[in-house]
Amino acid sequence: MYLGTIASGAGYFLWNKGACQVNAGVLAIMNNVLIPMGLIVNVLIWNREEDLGRLLIGGLIIAASLWLNEKWVKKKVEQKYGEA
Fold this sequence. Notes:
The N and C termini lie far apart (50 Å). This protein has helices at residues 2-19, 24-32, 34-46, 52-83. The model has no long low-confidence stretch (mean pLDDT 88). 86% of the residues lie in helices and 0% in strands.
């Protein structure tokens, strides 16, 4: 009951509501954040051993892509709509 109504139902609703409020770049990047977050949960809760160096490098790449999207792509979109 919990997994079907609260975890899945509320999770999908909130994900879709958030997806309507961001650009496609942010949505794609956040979709890829699910994998490192799952690994972090495994490390913190179940004390699984992970290669933290690779996890850090992957996290930095994702953070850099989010920064690039916010600084460069968002600026180009604002310029395009500002001209019209």
